[in-house]
Every structure is written in structure tokens, then in C-alpha cells.
Design brief:
With 98 residues, the protein is of the alpha+beta class. The protein is built from 3 helices and 4 strands; from the N terminus they run βαββααβ. 13% of the residues are buried.
Length: 98
């Protein structure tokens, strides 16, 4: 069964401290949903073309359906509500090829 991935790119982070509550709640929600963080804060980034060398988060799930369900879960929706105003990210849920 193909795995599912959350891919988040943060073009700019003007107030990293403002993400503390979100990060804590999101971490708990991801753990409960079976997500595994493969890359996150502190990971090295080299950007090309239109890419931005800013924070990138990659989270793996056992299936695409599990990844979608994790996003739609009440626990993750609670975390999303804590994102600060003016916050911007490019977020996608993708399915692996195998």
C-alpha cells in the first residue's frame, strides 16, 4: 500500500515563538495518528529555481488515507486553530508511488 506524506513549506517565519502552541499540539496529534517526522526544524535545505530555503517539514504515514485522516482529526484541527495570524505555509498531502 502506498504511503502518505505531509509536506509543509514555510516561505517566511516572522515569529517562530508564535508557533510553540501549534507545534506542541500538532506533535501530539501526529503521534496519535501514527505520523513519523522525517525532516523538520534544523534540517538543512538547499533551494533551487523558485524554492525558498526556509523551514520544510516532511511527515510520513503508513497510507495516504491515514495522512488525510490525520489532517481532518479533531486533534490536528485544534492545533491548526493555534496558528498565529499572518502565518503562511504551503501544505500538501501526497501519495507515494509504491
Amino acid at each position: 500500500m502506498p504511503k502518505g506524506y505531509w509536506v509543509s513549506v514555510y516561505p517566511t517565519i516572522t515569529n517562530p515563538e508564535g508557533l510553540a502552541v501549534y507545534n506542541e499540539l500538532a506533535g501530539l496529534a501526529l503521534k496519535a495518528a501514527g505520523g513519523r517526522v522525517l525532516a523538520s526544524i534544523g534540517s538543512r535545505v538547499v533551494a533551487h529555481e523558485a524554492g525558498i530555503a526556509e523551514r520544510v517539514v516532511l511527515i510520513e504515514f503508513d497510507s495516504f488515507e491515514q495522512a488525510v485522516a490525520a489532517y481532518e482529526s479533531a486533534a490536528y484541527q485544534e492545533a491548526l486553530a493555534e496558528l498565529p495570524d499572518g502565518f503562511e505555509r504551503d501544505f500538501r498531502i501526497i501519495e507515494s508511488l509504491d
